[in-house]
């Protein structure tokens, strides 16, 4: 009989791609990960790992094995959950990963509302960027993830499903003393001669802004580079430069600052992602519904679109997805 623990390690390697990351998640050493996978090769009488350059990758046989056992692991998780009563009762732990602004505006209010109705639900919240959230979700480290992209969503593994929560639009922040503050909207071309406060290169918003500027025939004159959006807002407030930020990150009350629509419009799409195997859990259902309700109040455009099931084979990867360690709000 195949060892469930070893199969879980193999599945984690498929998700996380390195021995080190698997070791961190499974709370064991890298040598133990390697030893368990080697033993699994002996148990199955197959080759599961192969060297490709400097990396270790799964063989086609390993991928076939994972495809067969992943549903079984999900079934075992469902059995374990049923024994705790979480499939019929509103109790237990729900782990949620989301980027900072989504945590502040969507997740925290939603979980507070769920707790008010169902005090036995215990939440664990983590600040994670979209790629890291999806990895953690597939690795069973969290139960729900909120991600956002300008453009297409990243591809989802077959065991995950997503529903679009809504959108927010990019806006241009200018100081009230800036001549552009008198306009009702601002185009990228209008910003040709402005000083910019921006995120570092590699952040999805920074990359999108650079592309828009290049399409308009210039490169932005960046005079400040900040890791988070609050610093960009501060730079605008003190008339150091202008900034372009997603609407959800802009407070309703601004000091010495105007937030104007960017033309042509650029919209960020929010998604709530979950594992299909947990869809029947009462705690997950209640949390998802409350996040959807909260999003309808916060995001500029709410959606009641059907669930999105996207796979690596059918969906294009969004260009310039944010680095998992990039901090922003």
UniProtKB/TrEMBL annotation:
Gene3D superfamilies: Periplasmic binding protein-like II (3.40.190.10), Winged helix-like DNA-binding domain superfamily/Winged helix DNA-binding domain (1.10.10.10). Keywords: DNA-binding, Transcription, Transcription regulation. InterPro entries: LysR_HTH_N, LysR_subst-bd, WH-like_DNA-bd_sf, WH_DNA-bd_sf. Pfam families: HTH_1, LysR_substrate. GO terms for molecular function: DNA binding; DNA-binding transcription factor activity. One of its GO terms (cellular component) is protein-DNA complex. Residues 2-59 form the HTH lysR-type domain. It comes from the Bacteria. PANTHER family: LYSR SUBSTRATE-BINDING (PTHR30346:SF29), TRANSCRIPTIONAL DUAL REGULATOR HCAR-RELATED (PTHR30346). Belongs to the LysR transcriptional regulatory family. This is HTH lysR-type domain-containing protein. The lineage of its organism: Bacteria, Bacillati, Bacillota, Bacilli, Lactobacillales.
């Amino acid at each position: 009989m195949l060892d469930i623990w070893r199969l879980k390690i193999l599945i984690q390697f498929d998700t996380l791609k390195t021995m080190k990351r698997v070791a961190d998640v499974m709370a064991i050493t890298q040598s133990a990960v390697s030893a368990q996978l080697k033993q699994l090769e002996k148990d199955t009488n197959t080759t599961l790992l192969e060297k490709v350059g400097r990396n270790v990758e799964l063989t086609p046989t390993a991928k076939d094995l994972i495809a067969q056992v992943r549903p079984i692991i999900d079934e075992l998780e469902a059995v374990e959950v049923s024994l705790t009563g979480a499939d019929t009762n509103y109790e237990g732990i729900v782990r949620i990963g989301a980027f900072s602004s989504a945590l502040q505006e969507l997740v925290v209010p939603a979980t507070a509302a769920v707790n008010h109705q169902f005090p036995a639900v215990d939440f664990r919240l983590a600040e994670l960027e979209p790629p890291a959230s999806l990895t953690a979700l597939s690795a069973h480290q969290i139960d729900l993830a909120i991600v956002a992209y300008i453009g297409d969503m990243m591809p989802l593994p077959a065991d995950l499903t997503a529903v679009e929560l809504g959108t927010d639009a990019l806006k241009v922040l200018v100081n009230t003393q800036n001549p552009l503050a008198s306009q009702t909207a601002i185009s990228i071309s209008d910003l040709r001669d402005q000083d910019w406060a921006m995120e570092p290169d590699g952040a999805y918003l920074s990359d999108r802004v650079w592309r828009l500027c290049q399409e308009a025939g210039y490169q932005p004159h960046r005079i400040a580079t900040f890791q988070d959006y609050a610093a960009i807002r501060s730079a605008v407030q003190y008339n150091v430069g202008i900034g372009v930020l997603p609407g959800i990150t802009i407070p309703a009350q601004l000091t010495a600052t105007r937030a104007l629509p960017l033309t042509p419009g650029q919209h960020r799409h929010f998604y709530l992602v979950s594992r299909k195997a947990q869809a029947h859990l009462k705690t997950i259902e209640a949390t998802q519904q409350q996040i959807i309700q909260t999003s309808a109040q916060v995001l500029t455009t709410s959606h009641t679109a059907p669930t999105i099931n996207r796979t690596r084979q059918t969906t294009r990867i969004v260009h310039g997805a944010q680095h998992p360690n990039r901090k922003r709000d």
